[in-house]
User: Fold this.
Amino acid sequence: MSKQFVIQSRTETQDGQRVPLGSREEIVSSLSGFNTMAEVEGGDTLWGPGIKIELPPEEAASLLEEYGLKQSGLERLITESYSLLGLITYLTTGEKETRAWTILDGTKAPGAAGVIHSDFERGFIAADTIFWKELEEAGSYPAAREQGKVRIEGKEYVVQDGDVMDFKFNV
Assistant:
């Protein structure tokens, strides 16, 4: 039998007003029976459905640190869901926006391009590719290109989680 717990730091009264149920310290002390929020029994990670603690970002980070966690429950749920479903994310970026696209792990570059538009897949030529962390370190796409960090990948390239891609196509 798995343990489940729900934490709410606020509740609504009958007149619709939100009132705090307790301070951060009171909430943490009410969890004293749990070593961590991601307790493992028999190899299974226990999730606390319905956990919602409304704290300022600094306090939320501190609370996660106290429990030895690197991610919130929601972030862990998303990560585990992507993993179980065999999904990864790649990015496209330009002057106006950066977008994340979800694809199946093992998708080749033309298939990834097709997620954006079928013409991209049909007329795929190549993709300028860089891992997001390398792009961040370079500071900009032109700087990354000057540093030789941008690679040209063809039709057989299997897209990796975190790739930033600029597709070249002709229709």
In short: Residues 130 and 150 are 5 Å apart (CA to CA). The chain is about 35% helix and 25% strand. The beta strands are 10-12, 18-20, 40-41, 44-45, 87-93, 98-104, 124-131, 151-153, 163-169. Helices lie at 24-30, 57-66, 73-85, 109-116, 118-122, 132-138, 141-146.
